[in-house]
Amino acid sequence: MENHKEHENKKIDHSKMDHSKMDMTQEEHAKMDHSKMDHGSVPMGSVGHDHHKMMIADFKKRFWLVIVLTIPILIISPMIQDLVGYNFLLPGNSYILFALSTIVYFYGGWPFLKGFFGEIKKGVPGMMTLIAMAISVAYFYSSATVFGLKGVDFFWELATLIAIMLLGHWIEMKSVLGASKALQLLVSMMPAEAHKVNGDKIEDISLDKLLKDDVILIKPGEKVPADGIITEGTSYLNESMLTGESKPVKKEVANKVIGGSVNGNSTIKVKVEHTGKDSYLNKVIKMVEEAQKTKSKMQNLSDRAAKWLTYIALAIGFGTLATWLLLGFPFVFALERMVTVMVIACPHALGLAIPLVVAISTAVSAQNGLLIRNRTAFEESRKISAILFDKTGTLTKGDFGVTRIESVDKNYNSDEVLRLSSALEQSSEHPIAVGIIKKVKENNIVIPKLEKFSAITGKGVEAIVEGKNVKVVSPGYLRENNISIPEDAYSDAAETVVFILIDSKLIGFIALADEIRPESAEAIRIFKKNNIKVLMATGDNEKTAKAVSDKLGLDGYYAEVLPHQKVEIIKELQSKGDFVAMTGDGVNDAPALAQANVGIAVGSGTDVAAETADIILVNSNPQDIANLILFGKATYRKMIQNLLWATAYNVVTIPLAAGVLYSSGFVLGPAVGAVFMSLSTVIVAINAQLLKKQINKG
Description:
Layout: H1 7-10, H2 46-76, H3 78-84, H4 93-108, H5 110-122, H6 127-146, H7 155-187, E1 193-198, E2 201-206, E3 215-218, E4 227-232, E5 235-238, H8 240-243, E6 249-251, E7 256-257, E8 262-263, E9 268-274, H9 280-293, H10 297-326, H11 331-344, H12 348-367, E10 370-372, H13 375-379, E11 386-390, H14 391-395, E12 396-407, H15 414-425, H16 431-442, E13 451-456, E14 460-465, E15 468-473, H17 475-480, E16 495-502, E17 505-516, H18 518-529, E18 533-537, H19 542-552, E19 556-558, H20 563-575, E20 580-584, H21 590-595, E21 598-602, E22 615-617, H22 622-658, H23 670-689, H24 691-697
Parallel strand pairs: 11-18, 11-20, 18-19, 20-21, 21-22
Antiparallel strand pairs: 1-2, 1-3, 3-9, 4-7, 4-9, 5-6, 5-8, 10-22, 12-17, 13-14, 14-15, 15-16, 16-17
Helix pairs in contact: 2-4, 2-7, 4-6, 4-7, 5-6, 6-7, 6-11, 7-12, 7-23, 9-12, 10-11, 10-12, 10-22, 11-22, 11-23, 12-22, 12-23, 12-24, 15-16, 18-22, 22-23
């Protein structure tokens, strides 16, 4: 009997889940501020979302005003007139240029100046520092030439530089916004109101007034407003946005429903179990947000690279200025080289490379039934070389049906064996217990009351029933207590057998069969294609374990394994150099999940807070675990691609900006440098967005 345990032990304690709020800075607007989200109300998450939209609108407004002012600046700029070959000088031409450029600098450049002060205040100079220094040097030097300093202004380059920077940020931020849409879709899934049942009356109330144990009516086609249990009616619910399960799921009386799922074509009544912060959807959203905030090794690497690039750019920028001056070139030329270096070296693409991929992968994975709690483990899932499966409910459906009931004591017939065992199983949600209770109902047997219920860790359950000590246990318990197992207990079929004891004497056994999931074979094919060993550890008997292993073509199996023994199996695999993933239910398998390199809690349903798991699969489908590994690989590839692009771009363009090809007649101006910088950032953003297609193809 596999991990047969008390219902209370099966439930996962949400209260222990660490949802400590992290201070999330909005670095260069690339990372969305969800810290102010209200997790107890319907519009949760809309604050950060709307704030991001407002920022995009602000950049758009600044960009268009700067464009309007840049056109006359270009027209009346003496340098442009010399280049194009026309003469159009207005009275006080230089003062008009100064006035227009001042508006461009302070209004158009304000986001960059504000960002610069923020970075300096924190002592972390970055992209905003480089942009602010570049536009400030250009503005103040050009202004000085208007008021007496000998030299040539480049107001036109300042204006075009700011215009291109604003355009690049506007485009990039629209792309960043797309990364949050999957999360926003989850946020928007809850309806605004619920139909509360008050006797014979139906009252429409807002969700914040909905309480635990309220009964609500859900009409055909409506969204379920809260987690609960159906008390009346049968319907098919679409849970695809929550679990990744594409087919509508049949729900009837006593079945659980998840808030945010969509009701089918029948009206149902639901007793509310979880609302607001305690609801499944809110936990998913919070988990996604925290995963997006958490920095993995890859992100820390890109952050360090961006920081050092800033220092290098500042050093190269001032070094370029000094070098060209020492070579005898005009100050204006040397200054232009320095400004171009600082603009083109802005580490925005590098700083954006990882956060965007993180935001997209976590949000879209959640839509596919993969909840990421540990970013590093998710990214390292690409390294998995061996995976250890729990059998019941993962490789198999977990839908047990009773195939045989045998008595070995003449004082108890098969119905008595079933009746007494059902007393212990009525409070458990374990698949074996569900199978036994289903058989009891089919036979119209009245379940007796029990007292002093307790679990025998990993081996079964016991209680007092009608004054007798009744145990329902695994074969391992019989062996430990030197109780002989009947010769006919096991058939050749892949059956799971539990034994019933009264006052420590064996009175009979019940055999149940659990059908192998049709998706298991395809999942194992994918694992093997990716050179991953597939092993199974089960509390089930040797015959059943071997039958499942042979049918699926596993690389090995461990039968009659207790939860603590799974840790030893994982340690043994790790000692041989394997990078091990463990799949379990997150409770009894907690030590094994913690020991594994990647711990995957499966079949958690609405219990999404599996404490020791790195990743939680809403469904128990092994295909999802295969998808997880493919998702992890796709995510890692995108991170590497973005980092390589951002790094290679700077390696190539910084020397060009400094003027290494000047002798060949090639000079890169600040405005062209700004185009390259913005283009690099947009390319990184678009490449990250392509991850959605790869994930959805899964």
